[in-house]
Write the structure tokens for this entry.
Amino acid sequence: MRVDTILVLDFGGQYCHLIARRIRENNVYSEIVSNDISSTEIRGWKTKVSVKGLVLSGGPQSVFDPDALKIDTEILGLGLPVLGLCYGHQLIANIAGGSVKPAEKKEFGIAYATIDKPVGVLNDLSSREKVWMSHSDTVYNLPNEYEILAHTENCPVAAFQYKKNSIYGLQWHPEVVHTENGGKMLRNFLFKICQCQPNWTMGNFIEKAVNETKKIVGDGRAIVALSGGIDSSTVTALAAKALGRNLTAVFVDHGFMRETEPEFVQKTFQEYDLNFIAVNAGERFLRKLQDINDPEQKRKVIGEEFVRVFEEEAKKVDAEYLLQGTIYPDRIESGFRRFSDKIKTHHNVAGLPARIDFRKIVEPLRDLYKDEVRKVAQKLELPSEIIERQPFPGPGLAVRIIGVVTQDKLNIVRKADKIVTDEIESAGLKDKLWQYFAILTDTKSTGVKGDARAYGYTVAVRIAESREAMTASFSKIPYEVLEKVSSKITNEIPEVTRVVYDITHKPPATIEWE
Ligand code: XMP
């Protein structure tokens, strides 16, 4: 079965991912593609999935910018429904010969739209709708074949439809929760206009991923890179279903794990019906990182060393394929989106060395968001300790020590991490948080311990709330909990004289410090 799919053309807007995620929440598959995808490329997509419609995302540009991002206009003639949002709305209006100009009054934030005609994408909406706007240009009018469906105080054409074909534009952002009935607008597009079937389910995904893995690996052997996190555990359970005893799970303890983690992973997976190897590689990784300060360099070195260990282990069991738990946001943050900057090298993606001694690297979760991985893990009946675990970066504590990594610093950050974890969990705060951990900064400061001067490390505490890690907020947890964390860290770790709390959202910061 080919899943019904909506392609989201990316014009660099900050909400581009949100559009894809909102569509998937309705059990319709969605992928982000480059804005300049050609009609031929879209036809190519149709051989893999059933493309039912296109969404043109928002973006930071003006259609008048000399280097403004455009589309291959032939895609408007493919007979596929199209929905332009914000920049996408202005772009369609501009291509149609409408009048688009810098707005006399820009609108940022909540606005109220008067729905002049509740049809198509606006079917069943009331005469006044609360919407979220963020635009500098405005569509002032359109040729006769277009019909205005809504306006706001400052925006005469806030929504339109093309009379001859299913082409729609919305100046506002239906994907943002502040647009009160945004979900309904997207559902109108998906189910009424594009006639999608809600056939993107995790059950279907598992079947497809198992078959695909079987097809690639055939009768060969594979190893899977297992760290014990949710992504690699899920890929291990999936691959075990596909390959049975032709699969060996390789758990590399790089020495940058949290307390008791190696024991936990071994105990969990030794009960599964697969081959399991644990490699103790702590010294080897530490040696490789000896003089490395730069975070990107650290990630690359760790990525490379991981692959070398996997190659060695693969040789021992005659495996030609490497499976790993890369997910969609890892690929994007490593620079897969054409117009988004590379933020950091995720160790299992762009951190891979140029020369890899495997026939193929297989990434069955490459198109999933984190919450979708959790659903797959639940369906595969992975233990709840794994499903509910907070994410942990592949390079581990090495990217939570700012500057050069040493064994002493690892011991400090590991102890601090355990204190943060224990205190948050015993305060009953775990469920509302995405991540909570300690960072060992490279700043030393003066303190006083037992009437004597002390000069020691500063530990930072990061506690973040998030839905899918693309954005995050620092958590406003009670001061009493922070106080306990701080006292315990300074009391129990002699090398630490100061604890600070990270009060930065993502963006502008990332969740991890390196
Ligand atoms: P940032 O720091 O980019 O992190 O905001 C987003 C989420 O990804 C996790 N993370 C990683 N996960 N390999 C991974 O598997 C990595 O190299 C990596 N780096 C960051 C991070 O913990 C957060 O949840």
